[in-house]
Q: What sequence folds into this?
């Protein structure tokens, strides 16, 4: 019924497990696949009398994230208790941050950051039977190994406008965090978790519509699919004249369906208050200097460097910088070959990545020096572009060195009057009418001759050279 | 003053069962306590800072060092119910 | 020998041991016998055999420990059904420090549930009886510790003080109780009641014992982020005079109604003695005191409502079985917590809940600032503040259980120092109708040495005769 154009308004809430040695508030080693409840102590089990002490390295990582996101860093950062009952929450409250988070504001890839704060992770709650989702099951079991893992919660402003943009931005965030070395940022393993706040509004309006929260989508594909599904669900509601209700939802990637986790009425009253066990953390100059000194080159800076210093196209620069592994590989290729043209190297790096589905270029059978060698053969016209692509296919399959493959397979470019002229002559002889039309000044039919020559040379001839020989032999120039 | 519904809401937040025969007396007791507490409304506190912590601690952080965790059997020993070295609970419904 | 042992203060017993005049196990067995014969319900657990003791300045002197402290492998139940039989895997720092200095844990003492109470009637393990009159309460929440020391069942004891829980029972039982500066003694392993107020400290027969115990209690603990090292070594006091000492008396508070005449008389008596010893008495005002009580009864329950959320029947303690998770939670907590604890959980949850935070918790935190500022201002003109510790002497069992508010008023004089995190001691000031009256001396943060010296001099002048040395038979 409503015909107004609707635009999605999307904000992301990302939980990142920090890669410290010990937990956020106790000395237990972080747990990854150890026997259940083998990484616990009085503190992270919430035993009577135990007290939290904040991990300095987690604060350090938090400051690095804040700096990378150009946030304002709090001079004094306060922990609050977020009170609610759940079996995976041993103390009956989560130690989080409320009105004085570690980092306020900032931006990444043109998307404004609302805040970044630190908190401790919940334990693992599973259906007592299988390891699947817990809803509906009668009994559940809790493993506290993960409980107390340091988390940074990063909240964006609602500035994303599509599922694709959200997915792309999340990749940039992951690359940035990986470059910082503060987290494994692995969605499948849960070290990077994303919730999305989604609403729709008429294009042009600045008011925000009623939003829903889509919880815990654990892969990039699911995030984009989940957001897309929720946008469509809301669009259908609105266009049917119904209204969206504020609720927390769960996206099931198996069925592509969205189910209700919690309605607004059930919304928690978290009764935040300052954590009396933890004095406010004073952020000293020394802490700031240490964090600043630990910052590596970040994707956005790298993107600029590629454009300004290497003269890459915007697309290549973004591709190679927002995927840091690919950027590293590209720079290795540049280093391996001497005087390679950067854009050409970038194009062939993209060619290679295009042939690898999930595998990263650096992990492929094609070493950076091998790709540099291939590029060298093309740019020095020893093989044609077409042949180079065949060779690359083979290198992706079996590895090897381009030059050798070329020799073994006899793929060297066929060129020079001595080699190519006879073949062209034969082709013209075999197609007298074509030859006549060309002589008459028609240029189109020359493609037939080139095709014939390519057939004879197995694609190893250079089209321009063939054209030149045809004109020469027909005395056109 | 706190009425039955408010009391039940608070009790739900606190995950504390109040049985029918406990409601009225509890509401009355809480109300009289809240009335007594209300004397702090007399004070003008507009330009007074709240105190959450007394005294100040210079460096309250801990170095990122690993300590021994508890043996699994020790961690599980006081648990009312255990299955496969995990704490067993009735499953949450919905939220 | 037994009567001699009984008459020894902790300091005297420790030196007798280190001088080789007294055998450690004989000392321990004597008090284990006393504790086993406990008729005051002061103990919830008594050591079976003599613990292995470290050689140290505390010379194996037996120590009674409030049940609120976690002790590895020993029941630590905080006076609550919800922790009945619970044995922690670790020991509280305060207890560990005293053990490391040579103390031997004699037993765990009864208390108000989770330290919530001023009469020890809120214990799941029954009320404690006052050794001066078994029809009366010992005060609380460290009532078991106070009764054990006053009744001669232990040379000294460890207690905790959140709003007066060391000082008030010490006063009602006629012994010495010291609440140190907040943060001076580690809270690690002390089952939390109100984290921003909880302090551990000694209950002893005399001031010198309190000083010796405190000396080994204080110190920064990396396991408690709020703990701070004490800037001074705690000295054993030796003062006999108070020359030049300025003692402030908040007249608006002390002359208020609800103070028993006998208490007031004993208090004025000790002030006269103080002047005779050379001290100057300065009248001052503490107008925020009446608001302090209300602020305390917002802040403490609010923090408690959160601290007690961990008792959920999942990892330890009582569980009332139910198919539904929420029902398991609510029934477990219904069955496991006593009436007063439930009241405070509900008040605290209400005070923090959305829409009420600013009116209650927010305002209470501001009152806390006012109280601390008023005390700081007084300490600009005076070295110490003196008040009665409790407005009344020990009251009859059951007398106030029906009226929570009347019970809360027992802490009128002790709460301001708790809110400000400043140290205070209670020493016996005399008797009123045959029941002990406590004198509270309070100072600025980290002024424990000053407080102990003054208390020592007054103790000598007052010359109070306790029960402990006589064995508590009465
Ligand atoms: Mg969070
Ligand atoms: Zn731990």
A:
């Amino acid at each position: 019924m409503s015909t107004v154009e609707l635009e999605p308004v999307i904000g992301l809430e990302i939980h990142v497990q920090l890669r410290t040695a010990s937990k956020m508030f106790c000395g237990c080693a972080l747990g990854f696949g150890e026997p259940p409840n083998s990484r616990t102590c009085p503190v992270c089990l919430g035993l009577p009398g135990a007290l939290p002490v904040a991990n300095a390295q987690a604060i350090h990582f938090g400051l690095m994230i804040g700096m990378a996101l150009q946030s304002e860093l709090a001079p004094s950062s306060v922990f609050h208790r977020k009170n609610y009952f759940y079996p995976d929450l041993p103390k009956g409250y989560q130690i989080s941050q409320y009105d004085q988070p570690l980092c306020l504001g900032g931006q990444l890839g043109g998307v404004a950051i609302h805040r970044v704060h630190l908190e401790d992770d919940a334990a693992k709650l599973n259906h007592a039977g299988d390891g699947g989702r817990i809803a509906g099951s009668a009994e559940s079991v809790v493993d506290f190994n993960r409980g107390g893992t340091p988390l940074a919660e990063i909240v964006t402003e609602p500035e994303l406008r599509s599922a694709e943009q959200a997915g792309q931005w999340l990749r940039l965030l992951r690359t940035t965090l990986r470059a910082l070395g503060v987290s494994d940022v692995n969605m499948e393993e849960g070290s990077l978790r994303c919730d999305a706040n989604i609403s729709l509004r008429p294009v042009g309006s600045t008011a925000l519509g009623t939003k829903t929260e889509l919880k815990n989508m654990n892969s990039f594909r699911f995030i984009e699919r989940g957001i897309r599904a929720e946008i469509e669900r809301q669009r259908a509601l609105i266009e049917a004249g119904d209204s969206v209700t504020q609720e927390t939802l769960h996206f099931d990637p198996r069925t592509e369906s969205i189910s209700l986790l919690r309605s607004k009425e059930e919304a928690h009253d978290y009764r935040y208050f300052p954590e009396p066990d933890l004095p406010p953390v004073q952020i000293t100059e020394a802490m700031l200097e240490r964090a600043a000194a630990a910052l590596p080159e970040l994707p956005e800076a790298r993107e600029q460097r590629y454009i300004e210093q290497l003269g890459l196209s915007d697309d290549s620069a973004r591709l190679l910088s927002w995927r840091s592994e690919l950027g590293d590989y590209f720079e290795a290729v540049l280093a391996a070959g001497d005087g390679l043209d950067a854009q050409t190297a970038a194009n062939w790096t993209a060619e290679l990545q295009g042939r690898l589905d999930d595998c990263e270029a650096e992990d492929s059978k094609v070493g950076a020096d091998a790709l540099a060698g291939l590029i060298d053969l093309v740019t020095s016209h020893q093989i044609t572009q077409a042949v180079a692509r065949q060779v690359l296919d083979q290198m992706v399959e079996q590895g090897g060195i381009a030059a050798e493959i070329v020799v073994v397979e006899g793929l060297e470019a066929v060129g020079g009057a001595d080699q190519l002229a006879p073949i062209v002559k034969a082709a013209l002889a075999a197609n007298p009418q074509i030859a006549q039309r060309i002589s008459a000044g028609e240029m189109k039919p020359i493609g037939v001759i080139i095709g014939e020559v390519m057939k004879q040379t197995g694609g190893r001839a250079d089209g321009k050279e063939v054209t030149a020989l045809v004109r020469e032999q027909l005395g056109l120039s | 003053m706190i009425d039955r519904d408010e009391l039940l809401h608070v009790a739900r937040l606190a995950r504390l069962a109040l049985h029918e025969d406990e409601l009225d007396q509890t509401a009355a007791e809480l109300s009289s306590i809240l009335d007594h507490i209300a004397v702090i409304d007399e004070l003008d506190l507009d330009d007074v800072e709240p105190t959450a912590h007394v005294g100040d601690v210079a460096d309250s952080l801990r170095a990122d060092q690993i300590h021994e965790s508890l043996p699994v059997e020790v961690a599980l020993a006081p648990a009312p119910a255990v299955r496969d070295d995990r704490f067993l609970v009735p499953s949450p419904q919905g939220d | 020998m037994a009567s001699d042992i009984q008459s020894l203060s902790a300091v005297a017993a420790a030196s007798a041991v280190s001088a080789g005049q007294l055998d450690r196990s004989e000392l321990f067995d004597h008090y284990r016998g006393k504790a086993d014969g406990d008729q005051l319900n002061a103990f919830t657990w008594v050591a079976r055999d003599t613990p292995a003791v470290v050689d140290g300045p505390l010379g194996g002197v037996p120590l009674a420990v409030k049940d609120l402290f976690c002790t590895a492998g020993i029941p630590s139940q905080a006076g609550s059904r919800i922790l009945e039989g619970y044995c922690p895997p670790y020991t509280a720092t305060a207890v560990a420090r005293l053990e490391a200095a040579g103390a031997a844990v004699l037993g765990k003492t009864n208390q108000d549930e989770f330290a919530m109470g001023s009469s020890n009637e809120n214990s799941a393990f029954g009320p404690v009886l006052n050794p001066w009159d078994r029809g009366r309460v010992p005060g609380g929440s460290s009532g078991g510790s106070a009764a054990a020391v006053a009744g001669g069942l232990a040379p000294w004891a460890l207690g905790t003080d959140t709003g007066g829980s060391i000082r008030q029972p010490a006063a009602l039982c006629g012994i010495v109780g010291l609440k140190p500066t907040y943060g001076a003694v580690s809270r690690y392993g002390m089952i939390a009641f109100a984290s921003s107020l909880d302090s551990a400290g000694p209950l002893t027969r005399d001031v010198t014992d309190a000083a010796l115990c405190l000396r080994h209690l204080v110190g920064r603990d990396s396991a408690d982020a709020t703990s701070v090292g004490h800037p001074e070594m705690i000295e054993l006091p030796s003062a006999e005079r108070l020359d030049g000492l300025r003692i402030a008396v908040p007249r608006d508070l002390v002359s208020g109604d609800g103070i028993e005449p006998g208490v007031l008389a004993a208090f004025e008596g000790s002030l006269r003695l103080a002047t005779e010893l050379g001290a100057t008495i300065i009248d001052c005002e503490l107008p925020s005191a009446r608001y302090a009580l209300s602020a305390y009864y917002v802040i403490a329950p609010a923090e408690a409502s959160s601290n007690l959320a961990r008792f959920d029947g999942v990892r330890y303690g009582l569980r009332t079985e139910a198919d539904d998770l929420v029902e398991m939670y609510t029934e477990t907590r219904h069955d496991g917590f006593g009436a007063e604890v439930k009241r405070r959980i509900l008040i605290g949850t209400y005070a923090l809940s959305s829409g009420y935070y600013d009116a209650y918790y927010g305002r209470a935190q501001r009152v806390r600032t006012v109280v601390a500022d008023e005390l700081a201002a007084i300490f600009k003109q005076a070295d110490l503040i003196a008040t009665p510790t409790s407005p009344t002497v020990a009251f009859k069992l059951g007398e106030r259980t029906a009226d929570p508010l009347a019970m809360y008023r027992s802490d009128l004089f002790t709460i301001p120092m708790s809110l400000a995190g400043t140290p205070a001691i209670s020493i016996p000031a005399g008797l009123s109708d045959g029941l002990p009256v406590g004198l509270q001396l309070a100072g600025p943060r980290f002024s424990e040495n000053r407080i102990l010296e003054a208390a020592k001099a007054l103790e000598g002048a007052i010359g109070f005769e306790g029960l402990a040395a006589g064995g508590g038979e009465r």
Q: What stands out?
A: The two ends of chain B are 31 Å apart (CA to CA).
